Amino acid sequence: MKILGGYRTKKNKIFFYSASLIGGIGLFLLGIKQTAAYLNTIVDSSVLMRKRNSDYIFLENVPYEEKEEFKLLTWWKRKKRLLPWRLLEIANAPDNKFRMKALHSLAAIKNLTDYQYQHMAQAITPQTAVSLARIRDVDQRFFFRCTAPLRYESKQDLIVLMRDLLYKLNKLTRHPCLKYFISNIFPTFPKFQAWTFYNDFDIYGFVGIRPSVVAEETVLVLSIEALLHHCIATGNGRAVVEAGALPLLFSCHRELNYDSEACILLGRLMMELSIYPEYLQDLYQTGWITVLAEWMQSNNQKLSIAAASCLANLDDDSNLKYEREVLLLHPPFKNNESIKTDIVLIHGLLGGVHYTWRQRGNRKGPVSIFGITSPGESIENLCARATSLVIDEAPSELTDDIHKKEEEVESGYVFVMSDIPVTEYATCNTCCAFEGNDKCQIEQAISCGNTNCWPKDWLPTDCKNLRVVGINYDTRLTDWRSWCPLRDRGATRVLAERCRKLLQQLMACGIGERPVIWIAHSMGGLLVKHMLIQAWHNSRSEQMKNFYQNTKGIVFLSTPHIGSPWATLHEAWRILFLPSTEVDELRYKSPILQKLHEEFKKFIFENPMEIISFVETKSMKLTTFEWEFHCVPPDLGDPGFGTIYEIPLGHMDICKPDGK
């Protein structure tokens, strides 16, 4: 009975616990149900189901062929998007043999968006940026835009930074010209009237005439010019870069980009700094490669030529260096053609690459003593007048009939050149007249434009594979007015010393490695003769030997081989006029020139070459008083050998042809 009683007690406990568990679960589920019912009375569940059907998108069953076309289009878009990056990857590789082809293909891409150009500009290496800048019609968005390499609030702050830079350079490389400039310019600026550094320079005795007021723009331009002169005088462009000049000069460019003369000074200064390839990264980061790329596309020849020379110096693809007085005129851009001949241009006294080799226009009247006065009517007006007579909507039958009649009329007359030689001392096939339907004359009439450098624009169109290099050196007539009052008179302007430096600069840019033809005006012919004689006397050097042996011809334009009567002054006039070193060496029957010409005759006898001389037969008028000067008479322009032409022009016009 005890066992039976214990069994019932245990069974009752199990039943009790089971009933309690089931009851608890039931109460819990009841609570959930009541809570859900209560929530349903608060929130309208139909709102959540209202737009469920509109979320469904029905996909049409696309045929298999259309799926394949869609895949092909997607693949093509992806490849098209990745193509510029693949080309950039090849272009950034310095040792890749396909690098040049990739650069030209990359520059030919014109359909990228702005963000794609900006993205690629951040991935372009400095060397690739230089190479791209040397490709014609490249998109400027490929280049990195430097917004503000230097922070300043006003131009006065910029002038303060420029003053500090010049002061720092004066401590690093002391030069009296820089001291003179600082003591005479910066104390005149209103903010620097109480500048204590002014007294530091008085102890040197550099106290000059100080202008009362100097404008902000003038101070900046003069400071850039002083910086350029310091680089030229000391030959230490590295100190300028190390002193932190690049970001400051970029800021000056942003403030003075409207001033063409200031930009030209900056371009010349960049030429001084571009001969140091180790600073390419600094030039790129400060935005100067972008500025040079913009200048390459400029219509201002002075800017485009300076930019072409700078970028050529920074380009690793060539080991050539165009230093201070050597300019690359053609080809300014990269091309796949190999250079076979070099043309070297050398101007004369008071000349320059941008002035001596201009095309002669319809100028009438006297010539200024420092250059040629501009013609009265611009070529733009003539072109506008010519184009205003053109009938755009003429019937084709009428135009064809007009062309036929033009050809009949043109074949009945000839063009005779206005500068035809009046005398010719040689037997050669000289053509001074052309038929009326001559292609060259027709193209010139249609183009209706003048050139600022005819050898650069005309010679490469007739002779392929040419490189045209211009020499641009400084000269002056008198030492009364000099930009640098403390320059050692004549120390570096003597003919022999000047030619020695020019010879080194020309060999640095590869002159002498291939056939060379010289075109020299006036004093430039004396420089050519002197350089060839110097190379001849140093023929032990293989580079010097190649320099004169590869000279195939010289064109002399009114070169005074034994001097000019115009440069010969009476002693009383010499004291008053104070002629420069260049004028002194151009005196008639100068012993230096007579000795040079005798040596040149021996050189020509041992190294025969083609010599062509153009001599002037007319005087030129100087200043408004119309003083007539016959600088180089025909007998003085005759070297005694070669082909000689007497041209009915004056001294300044003989190097400026009237047409192609």
Task: Walk me through the structure.
- The protein is of the alpha/beta class and 660 residues long.
- Among the domains are: 75-142; 155-286, no CATH class.
- The protein is built from 26 helices and 12 strands.
- It has helices spanning 2-42, 64-92, 99-107, 114-123, 126-133, 155-172, 176-185, 197-202, 216-234, 237-242, 245-256, 260-274, 280-285, 288-296, 301-314, 353-356, 379-387, 396-410, 439-447, 454-462, 495-508, 523-537, 542-549, 571-577, 581-585, 591-606, and strands at 326-330, 341-346, 414-416, 423-424, 433-435, 466-471, 516-521, 551-557, 610-616, 620-622, 627-629, 643-647.
- Strands 1-6-2-7-8-9-12-4 form an 8-stranded mixed beta sheet, with helices on both faces. Strands 3-5 form a two-stranded antiparallel ribbon.
- A hairpin with a 4-residue loop joins strand 10 and strand 11 (627-629).
- Helix 12 (260-274) runs parallel beside helix 15 and helix 22 packs across helix 26 (591-606).
- It starts with a helix and ends in a 13-residue tail after the last strand.
- Residues 191-212 and 364-394 have low confidence and may be disordered.
